[in-house]
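Subject: Predicted fold for EML-like second beta-propeller domain-containing protein, 421 residues

User T.R. writes:
Posting the sequence so we have a shared reference for the thread.
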Amino acid sequence: MTLRMFQSSVSSHMFPRVLLSSGPLSSTAAGRWSRFLQSSPILPHQLLRPAALSLNLPGIISSIWDSVLRAVPKKKTSHMKKRHRQMAGKALKDLKNINTCSGCGQMKRAHVLCPHCVEGMLSPIEYVGRESLITCFLILSASGATALKIHSTTDPDFPLVQSIDGVHKVGCHHIVTNGKGSRAVSVGFGGEINVWACREGTWSKDDAASGNMAGAAGTWAVALSDDGQYLAGVTQDGHIKVWDLNANGELIRDYETKGSFGTCLDMSADGRLIASGHENGSVYIFSTETGRMPFSLSGLVKPVRTVAFSPGGKLLAAAGDSRVIVLYDTSSGEQVANLSGHSAWILSLSWSHTGEYLLSSSFDGKVKVWSIDTRSCVATHSETEKAVWSAKWLPKTGKTEGFATAGASRSIAFYREATGG
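User M.O. replies:
I've generated the structure tokens; pasting them so everyone works from the same file.
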């Protein structure tokens, strides 16, 4: 009897409208029910109240009204107008945004060329990246064969305009140019270094500067100063040497490292700094003014295959078998950023002319464009699965950027920035 009364009371609390229509309980049952409640400490005292008093009518009505409001769809028109206002404000903010130039460190407007970096340009066609194999009108390429190929950049089809055969008996593995594209230097597998001069659009060998460089044996990678006067080279035993080409190849500097194979080399645009990468993962920066090594950089434990100074010389990028691009501050030697994304050896690095973008190519055929401001990859090209040995920016002649790549596919590929128009 007690169990049945307990179940009935719980039902009346949960479903009051159903049990309110029942008749009143007898006095005997009420007495038993009252005595049961008094002797049952587990039941709450709220069960002693009538069922009608347990109703929370305002709460029920409020919940029903909230359900109705949630069921009504929002006005999409007002939401879209709000979104358009937000986007318009963002575009206006980006247009007026001021940031720091990655090339020279000066303040400039976002998304435009730095006026401090380009103030010395006579015209866009006359400016070219110092470290590039690409001159204002020509592309010089070496494919490991004995010949050098020269292609014209003034024609949209990039035709072959000159081929110099037999320049290196075993083959050529490095070629560099100065800033104006008037002088080039090539290095062969046989250890010979050839200096080339461009006169009226035709390249010829400079015999006076080529045959008189002392200590050139064992040179692997080279870098040419912006004016073409000084040539720096790193040797197989880790020495960094500097020659004066205007003085018939006189040796003027000889820096010594720990003796690891020198795999890559670069010189800053102003000629004050020289950076070298080595097989043991070491990266060194030398000062041509003091003749000393201010920094020995860490961060790469595997062979370094490419190093590149930014146009303003504020940053040095280094990469190789570790598959990570490391950025260093040349004034302090500190590691300021790591750019990760490549899944194979990184073989080449090239800065854009303003220093806002960094171009990289890898052994798996991928070419990536990195934003220095955001420290992120903004474009990836994977048209080939073969190694891309070199990637270089083209001279900027219009509103868009472009670059060229060459690799194991035995071809030169050209890319330009998509404008959307």
